[in-house]
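New to this. Please check this fold:
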Amino acid sequence: MSSVSDSGVLHVLSGQTGLQPLPALLLAVSAGDSIVLLQDAAWLALAPGVGGDIWAKLPDGIAVLVLLADLELRGFERQALHPCVRVGDDTDWVAASERHARCITWSPV
């Protein structure tokens, strides 16, 4: 059994097709936090391109995870990913959940 961290928040982005929550998210994260990109938020894992580098203002010490299944469902599995993003599976997502006592879900309104 994993121990839960006293600090740090797990930020879950899901169903994200635009950039609306990102400014607020970037203000809310701090060292020790983790971000998981789920469902349509998987596109945010792609390398900087037309939208610029959306993760440029990300503080040091933030872990960003995208699920391989979500990349594959959207045809992104062969595209270059942003250097700060790690690809994982459901086990990695559960492990991230267990490391943090708090979770915030960011989704479009």
Q: What stands out?
A: Residues 47 and 82 are 4 Å apart (CA to CA).
